[in-house]
Hints:
Layout lengths: L1 H37 L3 E12 L2 E11 L6 H7 L11 H26 L7 E15 L2 E11 L6 E10 L4 E2 L10 H11 L31 E3 L3 E6 L12 E6 L9 H7 L3
Parallel strand pairs: 2-3
Antiparallel strand pairs: 1-2, 3-4, 4-5, 5-6, 7-8, 8-9
Amino acid sequence: MKNTIAVLALSSLLAVSACKKTENNNTAGTTEALEAERFTVDSVKINDSVKVNDSLMVKYSSKMLVFPTLKDKKLLDSIYFAEKGISDFSKNGLQNYLQKSKNEYFNQIRKDSKEWGSDLTFAQEWYSDTGMNVKSNMNDYLHIEYLWGSYQGGAHDNYGFSERVFDLKNSKKLELKDITSMPEANLEALLMKNINKINSGTTDDKGQVNNSEMLLVDKIPATENFYFDGKNLYFHYSPYEITAFAAGDITIPISWAELKGTLNPEFAKRMKIN
């Protein structure tokens, strides 16, 4: 009888343990599912070309990211620039938007070519290229880089960047004031001081970084074109924005130590900046 009771007790204990283990596994699975649902990224792309006339070939390419799990319209308007008039943020909606943009671009080139098409004295290939890339997603801060390039005749093509950081926790685009309260003049001084810290490809005779040699401005503005990592706040400038085209795009870092005492407490806590 005692042996029977012991066997039943052991069986009950194993059953309870199995239940708890299953419960824990289910909880872990649910947590993983929620994490997966929380943030996913997809993309749509389009590549096409058209021969406008005997002298001109035109190419169009574009890539847009799709965020199926983001539902806040205000946040999505900010990600896709509300002025573009995008209202359908689904994969099909964004693909249709790219198709429409491509057709408008080709139609405009065809229209313009009727006026200046005869001026082309040799074969040329023009293009328009735009894209979006996720550069990082840390502590619910999503950094997206928007880039564009184009050539429509002239000495060289043009290109540029736009850096945007989105606070997924609060469903908004992050602004500079959400990071630091440092006065504008102080930030400008730090930007000027640090301009040669990251090599853009411009160096002097000794191989030292010399971005400042090609400056076109007296003061470097602290723009909203920024992003960050665990060490620095970075400001990104496209060609011609602060320097000559030959200098390329310029990125200037400002360390968290240089911003000490001005950092937004909530931001510093989320980024684990001491």
